[in-house]
Amino acid sequence: MGGHREKDDGALLRAVAAGDQAALADLYDRHAGWLHARLARRCADPEVVREVLQDTFVTVWRSASGHRGAEAGGWLWTIAARRLVDARRAQERSARVAPEPEAAAVPSAEDRVLAGLEYGDVGTALDRISPELREVLRATVVDGLTTREAARLLGIPEGTVKSRARRARTELRAALAQLNPSPLGGPA
Protein backbone atom coordinates (compact mmCIF):
# COMPACT_ATOMS: atom_id res chain seq x y z
CA MET A 1 0.00 0.00 0.00
CA GLY A 2 0.94 3.63 -0.31
CA GLY A 3 1.58 4.26 3.40
CA HIS A 4 -1.65 6.21 3.81
CA ARG A 5 -3.02 4.21 6.76
CA GLU A 6 -2.31 6.95 9.31
CA LYS A 7 -3.98 9.69 7.25
CA ASP A 8 -7.52 10.87 7.92
CA ASP A 9 -10.22 10.44 5.29
CA GLY A 10 -9.84 14.01 4.07
CA ALA A 11 -6.12 13.52 3.39
CA LEU A 12 -6.85 10.23 1.61
CA LEU A 13 -9.51 11.88 -0.54
CA ARG A 14 -7.13 14.69 -1.48
CA ALA A 15 -4.59 12.04 -2.52
CA VAL A 16 -7.29 10.19 -4.50
CA ALA A 17 -8.24 13.46 -6.21
CA ALA A 18 -4.58 13.78 -7.23
CA GLY A 19 -4.76 10.31 -8.85
CA ASP A 20 -3.22 8.21 -6.05
CA GLN A 21 -4.57 4.67 -6.49
CA ALA A 22 -2.96 3.46 -3.25
CA ALA A 23 -4.93 6.11 -1.35
CA LEU A 24 -8.14 4.82 -2.96
CA ALA A 25 -7.20 1.28 -1.92
CA ASP A 26 -6.63 2.47 1.66
CA LEU A 27 -9.95 4.33 1.66
CA TYR A 28 -11.64 1.18 0.34
CA ASP A 29 -10.01 -0.98 3.02
CA ARG A 30 -11.12 1.48 5.69
CA HIS A 31 -14.77 1.81 4.60
CA ALA A 32 -15.84 -1.07 2.33
CA GLY A 33 -16.67 -3.42 5.23
CA TRP A 34 -19.28 -1.26 6.92
CA LEU A 35 -20.63 -0.01 3.57
CA HIS A 36 -21.09 -3.61 2.41
CA ALA A 37 -22.87 -4.52 5.67
CA ARG A 38 -25.27 -1.58 5.44
CA LEU A 39 -26.01 -2.22 1.76
CA ALA A 40 -26.61 -5.92 2.46
CA ARG A 41 -29.20 -4.98 5.11
CA ARG A 42 -31.11 -3.11 2.39
CA CYS A 43 -30.66 -5.49 -0.53
CA ALA A 44 -30.80 -9.28 -0.42
CA ASP A 45 -29.03 -9.72 -3.78
CA PRO A 46 -25.28 -10.07 -3.10
CA GLU A 47 -24.43 -9.33 -6.74
CA VAL A 48 -26.27 -5.99 -6.58
CA VAL A 49 -24.52 -5.17 -3.30
CA ARG A 50 -21.10 -5.87 -4.88
CA GLU A 51 -21.95 -3.77 -7.94
CA VAL A 52 -23.20 -0.88 -5.81
CA LEU A 53 -20.07 -1.01 -3.65
CA GLN A 54 -17.87 -0.98 -6.75
CA ASP A 55 -19.88 1.88 -8.29
CA THR A 56 -19.52 3.80 -5.04
CA PHE A 57 -15.74 3.70 -5.17
CA VAL A 58 -15.67 4.45 -8.91
CA THR A 59 -17.69 7.58 -8.05
CA VAL A 60 -15.22 8.38 -5.25
CA TRP A 61 -12.35 8.08 -7.75
CA ARG A 62 -14.09 10.47 -10.13
CA SER A 63 -15.35 13.02 -7.62
CA ALA A 64 -12.96 12.95 -4.65
CA SER A 65 -11.98 16.56 -5.27
CA GLY A 66 -15.55 17.62 -4.45
CA HIS A 67 -15.45 16.30 -0.87
CA ARG A 68 -14.83 18.74 1.95
CA GLY A 69 -13.90 17.87 5.51
CA ALA A 70 -11.89 15.21 7.30
CA GLU A 71 -14.47 12.41 7.59
CA ALA A 72 -15.85 10.62 4.55
CA GLY A 73 -18.36 8.21 6.12
CA GLY A 74 -21.51 10.25 5.56
CA TRP A 75 -20.43 11.22 2.05
CA LEU A 76 -19.63 7.60 1.13
CA TRP A 77 -22.97 6.39 2.48
CA THR A 78 -24.84 9.06 0.52
CA ILE A 79 -23.12 7.89 -2.67
CA ALA A 80 -23.76 4.20 -1.88
CA ALA A 81 -27.42 4.79 -1.00
CA ARG A 82 -27.98 6.69 -4.24
CA ARG A 83 -26.26 3.94 -6.24
CA LEU A 84 -28.52 1.38 -4.55
CA VAL A 85 -31.62 3.37 -5.50
CA ASP A 86 -30.29 3.60 -9.07
CA ALA A 87 -29.70 -0.17 -9.14
CA ARG A 88 -33.24 -0.83 -7.89
CA ARG A 89 -34.69 1.49 -10.53
CA ALA A 90 -32.70 -0.32 -13.22
CA GLN A 91 -33.98 -3.67 -11.93
CA GLU A 92 -37.56 -2.38 -12.00
CA ARG A 93 -37.14 -1.13 -15.57
CA SER A 94 -35.70 -4.43 -16.74
CA ALA A 95 -38.46 -6.36 -14.93
CA ARG A 96 -41.07 -4.28 -16.78
CA VAL A 97 -39.36 -4.97 -20.10
CA ALA A 98 -38.92 -8.73 -19.57
CA PRO A 99 -41.15 -9.94 -16.72
CA GLU A 100 -40.34 -13.33 -15.30
CA PRO A 101 -43.34 -15.26 -13.92
CA GLU A 102 -41.40 -16.69 -10.99
CA ALA A 103 -39.96 -13.29 -10.06
CA ALA A 104 -43.21 -12.05 -8.52
CA ALA A 105 -41.61 -11.44 -5.12
CA VAL A 106 -43.44 -9.08 -2.82
CA PRO A 107 -41.26 -6.11 -1.80
CA SER A 108 -40.19 -6.16 1.83
CA ALA A 109 -41.66 -3.67 4.26
CA GLU A 110 -38.29 -1.89 4.37
CA ASP A 111 -38.23 -1.64 0.56
CA ARG A 112 -41.73 -0.12 0.57
CA VAL A 113 -40.78 2.41 3.26
CA LEU A 114 -37.56 3.37 1.45
CA ALA A 115 -39.46 3.74 -1.83
CA GLY A 116 -41.97 5.98 -0.04
CA LEU A 117 -39.13 8.05 1.35
CA GLU A 118 -37.58 8.32 -2.09
CA TYR A 119 -40.69 9.01 -4.18
CA GLY A 120 -43.53 10.17 -1.92
CA ASP A 121 -44.30 13.38 -0.05
CA VAL A 122 -41.70 12.55 2.59
CA GLY A 123 -39.03 12.32 -0.11
CA THR A 124 -40.12 15.65 -1.54
CA ALA A 125 -40.11 17.20 1.94
CA LEU A 126 -36.67 15.71 2.68
CA ASP A 127 -35.35 17.38 -0.47
CA ARG A 128 -36.51 20.73 0.93
CA ILE A 129 -34.45 20.59 4.13
CA SER A 130 -30.73 21.29 4.26
CA PRO A 131 -28.31 18.45 3.40
CA GLU A 132 -26.70 18.34 6.86
CA LEU A 133 -30.13 17.94 8.50
CA ARG A 134 -31.17 15.35 5.91
CA GLU A 135 -27.95 13.37 6.59
CA VAL A 136 -28.75 13.22 10.30
CA LEU A 137 -32.33 12.09 9.66
CA ARG A 138 -31.23 9.39 7.26
CA ALA A 139 -28.60 8.12 9.68
CA THR A 140 -30.85 8.10 12.76
CA VAL A 141 -34.29 7.34 11.32
CA VAL A 142 -33.82 5.49 8.03
CA ASP A 143 -30.63 3.65 8.98
CA GLY A 144 -31.62 3.27 12.63
CA LEU A 145 -28.23 4.34 14.00
CA THR A 146 -27.80 5.47 17.58
CA THR A 147 -26.76 9.06 18.24
CA ARG A 148 -23.21 7.86 18.93
CA GLU A 149 -23.06 5.79 15.70
CA ALA A 150 -24.48 8.67 13.65
CA ALA A 151 -21.96 11.08 15.21
CA ARG A 152 -19.10 8.74 14.32
CA LEU A 153 -20.42 8.15 10.80
CA LEU A 154 -21.00 11.84 10.07
CA GLY A 155 -17.90 13.09 11.88
CA ILE A 156 -19.79 15.47 14.18
CA PRO A 157 -20.31 15.61 17.98
CA GLU A 158 -23.24 13.70 19.52
CA GLY A 159 -24.83 16.95 20.73
CA THR A 160 -24.79 18.24 17.16
CA VAL A 161 -26.53 15.06 15.98
CA LYS A 162 -29.26 15.61 18.60
CA SER A 163 -29.78 19.30 17.80
CA ARG A 164 -29.76 18.69 14.03
CA ALA A 165 -32.24 15.82 14.43
CA ARG A 166 -34.57 18.10 16.41
CA ARG A 167 -34.23 20.88 13.85
CA ALA A 168 -34.65 18.41 10.96
CA ARG A 169 -37.92 17.08 12.39
CA THR A 170 -39.25 20.63 12.77
CA GLU A 171 -38.26 21.58 9.21
CA LEU A 172 -39.59 18.28 7.85
CA ARG A 173 -42.96 18.87 9.55
CA ALA A 174 -43.10 22.36 8.04
CA ALA A 175 -42.18 21.07 4.57
CA LEU A 176 -44.83 18.33 4.81
CA ALA A 177 -47.40 20.90 5.93
CA GLN A 178 -46.64 22.96 2.83
CA LEU A 179 -47.15 19.87 0.65
CA ASN A 180 -50.42 18.92 2.41
CA PRO A 181 -51.93 22.16 3.73
CA SER A 182 -55.20 20.62 4.97
CA PRO A 183 -55.25 20.08 8.74
CA LEU A 184 -55.17 16.45 9.81
CA GLY A 185 -57.49 16.74 12.77
CA GLY A 186 -59.99 19.19 11.33
CA PRO A 187 -60.72 22.60 12.88
CA ALA A 188 -59.32 23.15 16.34
From TrEMBL:
Domain of life: Bacteria
One Gene Ontology biological process: DNA-templated transcription initiation
Gene3D superfamilies: 1.10.1740.10, Winged helix-like DNA-binding domain superfamily/Winged helix DNA-binding domain
Entry's transmembrane regions: none
InterPro entries: RNA_pol_sigma-70-like, RNA_pol_sigma-70_dom, RNA_pol_sigma70_r2, RNA_pol_sigma70_r4_t2, RNA_pol_sigma_r2, RNA_pol_sigma_r3/r4-like, WH-like_DNA-bd_sf
Keyword Transcription regulation in record: yes
Pfam families linked: Sigma70_r2 (PF04542), Sigma70_r4_2 (PF08281)
Keywords from the named record: Sigma factor, Transcription, Transcription regulation
GO MF annotation terms: DNA binding; sigma factor activity
Residue ranges of every copy of the RNA polymerase sigma factor 70 region 4 type domain listed in the record: 122-172
Transcription recorded as keyword: yes
RNA polymerase sigma-70 region domain location: 27-93
NCBIfam families: sigma70-ECF (TIGR02937)
Family, as annotated: Belongs to the sigma-70 factor family. ECF subfamily.
Name the UniProt record assigns to this protein: RNA polymerase sigma factor
